[in-house]
Amino acid sequence: MTCLLRISLLLYCMALAVESFATVAVEDDLGNRVELAEPAQRIVSLAPHLTEILFSLGVGDRIKGTSRFSDYPVEALAIPVVGDAFTMSVEGVVAMQPDIIFAWATGGANRSLERLNQLGYAIYINEAKTLNDLGSTVNNMAVLVGKQARGVQLQKESSLRLASLHETYQLQPQVSVFFQISDESLYSINGDHLISQGIDICNGTNIFSGGKISVPLVSIESVLDLDPDVIVISKPADGAESVWKERWSQYPGFAGKLRWIDPGLISRPSLRMLDGIETLCELIHQ
Known about the structure:
single chain; Rossmann fold; 16% strand; 4-stranded parallel beta sheet; 5-stranded parallel beta sheet; 11 helices; alpha/beta
């Protein structure tokens, strides 16, 4: 082997080594730079939708700890729980020695996250503002776990599906919608909420779109005054009868307006939310 060939081979091997250990970095939804020396192998996921995304990327086996209500896919139920949207065990997270922590800005465990940040842990904070951001989140998370090609593919599929739903349902008559986000109290959503953006795609009009609060508490009287064409209530598909079926049915014409949707489909900003929006469109125009 000539000296020149040896040098070329050495340089090629060095380039491969550099590529293998190159840092990966993205900006999270709060504008923070998140950088890792190499793709994460040990992960803590602090929201059910983030757990879902990680499984979509094919790295569910790397999740060492997750949050309460992380129940999809079924394999997620076997992962140890370290907290929920409001509290978490910092000691429990530390014991898992994660390379990356994925967290949700809407969750209330900010003090614990600040402590973990002070301890030097890499944290990616997610807060999707638009439905298109769902694909961006998947893509960013894919970079941090070394699944870039899969992330690009899923983001593209997400964008195409949203565009297809919009094109399909803009041909349907416009329908006024009251979305009841809870089967217990009378909470709804304003126009900035992701679910309301889904209603827009379905060519529906959210009757509380002008509200300033993302999830406002509304009154029965205000709903009756606005007289929506359709009422969609998010309720787990557990077979139990909803108390609101009887309540709304007391008002003339309202019984036929009622629809039900699984909150697991429509309330979690994961890729499954696209299934939820498709179901929502079908319910609105049934």
